[in-house]
Amino acid sequence: MNALNDEGPSLPVAQPADTTVRRRSLIAGCGAHAVHDGLTDVIYVLLPIWQAQFALSYAQIGLLRGAYSGMMAGFQLVASRAARRWGRARLLVAGTALAGLAYLLAGQAGGLSVLLMALLLGGLGASTQHPLASSLISDTHEAGGGVKQALSQYNFAGDLGKTLLPGVVGLLLMLISWRASVTLMGLLGLIAAGLLWWLIPVQAEPAAAQGKALTANPGRGSVGGLRALILTGTLDSAVRMGFLTFLPFLLQDKGAGTAGIGLALTMLFVGGAFGKLLCGYLGVRIGMMRTVWLTEFSTAVLIIMAVYLPFFGLMAILPLLGLVLNGTSSVLYGAVPDLASPGKREQAFAVFYTGTIGGGALAPVVFGHLGDITGAPFAVIILATTLLLTLPLSWYVQKGLAAEPVVA
Question: Which residues form a coiled coil (predicted)?
Answer without folding.
Answer: none
